[in-house]
Write a structure and sequence with these properties.
The structure holds 2 protein chains of 2 kinds.
Chain A: H1 7-70, E1 74-75, E2 85-86, H2 89-102, E3 108-112, H3 126-137, E4 143-149, E5 152-162, H4 166-174, E6 188-197, H5 199-251, H6 254-259, H7 270-334, E7 348-355, E8 363-371, E9 374-382, H8 386-405, H9 410-421, E10 431-439, E11 444-450, E12 456-459, E13 462-465, E14 485-488, E15 494-498, H10 500-503, H11 515-524, H12 530-544, E16 554-561, E17 567-572, H13 577-591, H14 596-616, E18 625-633, E19 636-643, H15 670-678, E20 681-687, E21 690-698, H16 700-714
Parallel strand pairs in A: 1-2
Antiparallel strand pairs in A: 3-6, 4-5, 5-6, 7-16, 8-9, 9-10, 10-11, 11-14, 12-13, 12-15, 15-16, 17-18, 18-19, 19-21, 20-21
Helix pairs in contact in A: 1-2, 1-5, 5-7, 7-8, 8-9, 13-14, 14-15
Chain B: E1 2-8, E2 11-20, H1 25-37, E3 42-53, H2 55-70, E4 74-78, H3 82-90, E5 99-100, H4 103-110
Parallel strand pairs in B: 2-3, 3-4, 4-5
Antiparallel strand pairs in B: 1-2
Classes of the chains: A alpha+beta, B alpha/beta.
Chain lengths: 715, 112
């Protein structure tokens, strides 16, 4: 509303119209009151003049006129010219009026009548006529009006002239020049008009008023000026100073503010209080600003540091993450994972699996041939998880394998490894180990258990724990003794090693897979081959714990013991040896109730291979040995022929002509063809200067059963 | 291995028993050669008692068949045991040697 005006200006702008309006109202009221009072005053004056004049005439009429009659005088207007004549009462009044008019006050009196004897006294204007009409009704109330006569404002008063004595009535009624002859006593016979000019009184009054107003206005403006200056001194200037300081404060940089000078400030009133408050506020702001700035700086610095740290941490994390992945890969890759691990060993079948939990665990399995007739199997579980467990696992595995290969008993192996693990085991880790040695010829299992879950042997319709829970985990005390126990496996039985990740696998409700459930599963699957057995157990465990997070590694190893090599022959490189081979095979077939067709196929294949070797295999004429090793296991008949003849891979021989007519049919090349046709699998390798040919076929009954099963499976 | 022969009209029935392998094939080869030399042109190999035959035995039979073919003679087989028949099949010999269920049938077929 008042855009950028100063407070003083605003006060003036608000006050001046107020004073002006008040003045105008005062003037108007004052002038009105004054005019009324003046009029009233003049009316009273006119009244009193009229009364005076009328009193004179009364007196004249009552005292003088009767004496005139006694003295034989007469009355007339021409009293100045005729002796003994006296002025008529009306003339007397006129004379008095003239005297008044000459007094210089501007007052005029005149006796008038609607029925004048003297024509000069007749009614002249509207006022007089109206006045008489009014007086006719109420003779006691003078008729008063303001008017203008000869250009001057005047007040006119008309008072009734009543017939106050009989002489008046009789005189007028008798007067020849009277227009009316029926006057009665107390009739209104005429009126006395008094005219008082008002202009000079009004002028005086206005002058007074102007003086009064002027003085008032002067006083007003004086007060205003004082207030304005006072405001300037007490409010505007202090405020302006404070405003200036604020502006200055805002312009300054924080450091300047901090050292800024404090200018003089007013003291003692609200402005001073305001200024003090501002000073305090400014210093508070300064200190806060400084603090804020410092905080800002340090915050920025901290953000930078934190960012850098975060970047380092992230890089570190990524590095560790990838190293962990690599470590995990290495950890997995050091476990033997090629199956079958010993393809030419038909006397046992081994399979192992480990399903790592999310975090690297410390489960491991291992197996190795100590020599031709002894197979070592290990399962172990390192306490804890993560990298330490993985490292401890790798160390433990290497120590166990290295020790085991030194051909010691299982208990000696565990004792030795335990002694090696204990001294450097600062992180107090330990490992539970089951180590067993299978004697492949006899099926005897030598084993020692270092605090590990007791394994099972399954097969046929039995499920037997191998040993009892015994022994202490490795890595705890360096002086622990371990026991070697024995368990006899019969052909077709399977040793199952496992870690507690299997039995302690949990479902979504936190229930354990548990040992009884595991035993039931194993019992149900006891005739399965190791690979199928473990695959199905894993499926069972995973189906059980579906939806739950795998908390621990699930590790299992299954070793199925099969019958040892059934027939081992060493033949000389003479044709006559073939007869011996044939009869040995026949005996073998009889002993093991091998069907004729299968014996025939094997026998023929061996005949062809060995005949070939005897006939064409040697560069010299000397004596050589041909070793034949025949096995039957799991419905599979296998034969391995080892000779030291010149390198010859029969699998590279060309396919013979089987369709030409007799005269074109080449003679020869049929032997190898027969071998390949009769056997399901033929493998050749040259090793240590010797040819190894390994042939095998399923027993035809087994093949047929499998074919049937396959057909069922396809439905 | 034992080899016996009998005449049935112009047909000579050669019965083989036992094993026909690298140790015995040569003697069968010589025997068949003699028979052909002596003028036999219609041969029935009776394998009823043959237990075993290797590629060497097959070769002897093939050589005899080629020989007879060249001089317009004939050789057939009869009474093969299943596993012997299988070997013949594998070797692709069924297209060379007509095979009959018994010697009479075989002799009848090749008799002139």
């Amino acid at each position: 509303m008042f855009p950028n005006w100063r407070i003083g200006t605003k006060l003036l702008v608000l006050t001046v119209p107020l004073i002006a309006a008040a003045t105008l109202v005062a003037m108007w009221t004052f002038s009105r009151l004054n005019a009324e009072r003046l009029q009233e005053k003049l009316k009273d004056r006119a009244h009193s003049i009229a009364n005076q004049v009328m009193a004179d005439r009364q007196y004249y009429g009552a005292v003088v006129v009767p004496r005139v009659g006694e003295l034989k005088g007469s009355l007339g207007t021409d009293y100045r010219d005729v002796h003994g004549r006296f002025p008529l009462p009306a003339t007397f009044v006129r004379e008095v009026s003239e005297q008044i008019a000459r007094s210089g006050d501007g007052y005029t009196t005149r006796l008038i009548s609607p029925w004048p004897i003297n024509k000069e006294m007749g009614l002249r204007d509207a006022f007089e006529r109206e006045g008489f009409t009014s007086l006719a009704h109420s003779p006691g109330d003078p008729f008063v009006r303001t008017d203008t006569v000869e250009g001057r404002p005047v007040i006119r008063v008309l008072m009734a002239d009543v017939a106050s004595s009989t002489s008046c009535v009789s005189c007028h009624n008798a007067h020849p020049q009277s227009p009316k002859h029926d006057f009665h006593l107390y009739d209104v016979m005429g009126g006395l008009e008094v005219i008082i000019p008002t202009d000079q009184y009004l002028a005086e009054s206005r002058q007074d008023m102007a003086i009064a107003l002027g003085g008032g206005l002067f006083l007003c403006f004086l007060v205003l000026g004082i207030v304005s200056i006072g405001t300037q001194w007490t409010v505007t200037r202090p405020l302006a100073q404070i405003a200036e300081r604020m502006a200055q404060f805002m312009r300054q940089r924080p450091d300047e503010q901090a050292s800024g000078q404090t200018p003089e400030l007013p003291r003692g009133d609200e402005a001073a209080y305001l200024a003090q408050s501002f000073s305090k506020m400014a210093s508070v702001i300064r200190s806060q600003q400084t603090a804020l700035q410092e905080a800002n700086t340090s915050l920025e610095q901290r953000v930078q540091e934190r960012t850098a740290e975060l970047r380092r941490t992230t890089a570190e994390k990524e590095r560790i993450g990838s190293e962990l992945r690599i470590a995990s890969e290495i950890q997995k890759s050091i476990l033997p994972r090629t199956f079958p691990p010993f393809p030419d060993r038909t006397d046992f079948e081994i399979y192992a699996t480990t399903i790592p939990a999310l975090e690297m665990g410390g489960d491991f399995y291992d197996f190795f041939l100590i020599d031709d007739k002894r197979l070592g199997v290990v399962i172990a579980d390192v306490s804890g998880k993560g990298v330490p467990a993985a490292i401890f696992m790798a160390v433990s595995r290497s120590l166990i394998k290295a020790t085991a290969l030194a051909s010691v008993s299982p208990s000696e192996c565990l004792e030795h490894v335990n002694r090696l693990l204990c001294p450097d085991n600062e992180s107090a880790m330990f490992v539970t180990v089951f180590y067993g040695i299978l004697h492949t010829e006899s099926g005897e299992l030598e084993f020692s258990n270092g605090g590990h879950n007791v394994p099972y042997v399954i097969g046929g319709d039995r499920l037997v724990p191998v040993g009892t829970p015994s022994g202490m985990a490795l890595g705890i005390m360096d002086d622990v003794r371990y026991q070697t126990s024995r368990f006899s496996l019969t052909a077709g039985e399977t040793l199952v090693l496992y870690t507690d990740g299997v039995t302690e696998a949990m479902d979504a409700q936190g229930r354990l897979f548990s040992a009884p459930r595991f035993e039931q599963t194993l019992y149900r699957l006891s005739t399965q081959r190791p690979i199928d057995l473990l695959t199905k157990v894993v499926e069972d465990v995973q189906a059980f714990s579906s939806g739950a997070l795998q908390a621990d590694d699930i590790t299992m190893l299954a070793l199925r013991y099969r019958q040892p090599a059934l027939l081992e022959l060493t033949l000389a490189n003479r044709s006559s040896e073939l007869q011996r081979l044939a009869s040995e095979i026949e005996q073998f077939a009889q002993n093991h109730r091998i069907p004729d067709a299968d014996v025939h196929a094997l026998s023929l294949a061996l005949d062809e291979v060995i005949t070939n070797t005897i006939s064409y295999g040697y560069d010299d004429q000397g004596a050589h040995e041909i070793r034949v090793r025949l096995t039957l296991a799991d419905g599979r008949l296998s034969a391995e022929v080892e000779d030291d003849g010149r390198p010859f891979d029969p699998l590279t021989a060309p396919q013979p002509d089987l369709t030409s007519a007799v005269e074109d049919r080449p003679v020869g090349g049929l032997g190898i063809h027969l071998v390949r046709s009769l056997m399901e699998q033929v493998d050749y390798r040259r090793e240590s200067g010797k040819n190894h040919l390994i042939m095998s076929k399923r027993l035809s009954a087994v093949a047929q059963a499998e074919m049937k099963a396959g057909q069922h499976g396809n439905h | 291995m034992e080899i016996t022969e009998r005449k049935a009209g112009d047909v000579c029935v050669v019965s083989i028993s036992g094993r026909l392998d690298s140790g015995t094939s040569d003697s069968l080869g010589q025997r068949l050669h003699q028979l052909i030399d002596r003028g036999e042109r219609r041969l029935v190999i009776d394998a009823e008692k043959l237990d075993y035959i290797s590629s060497t035995g097959l070769r002897v039979l093939l050589v005899a068949a080629k020989h007879l073919k060249a001089i317009d003679g004939r050789i057939v087989l009869s009474s093969l045991k299943p596993h012997i028949l299988e070997v013949f099949e594998i070797a692709g010999f069924k297209s060379i040697f007509p095979i009959y269920e018994n010697t009479d049938q075989a002799a009848q077929q090749i008799s002139a």
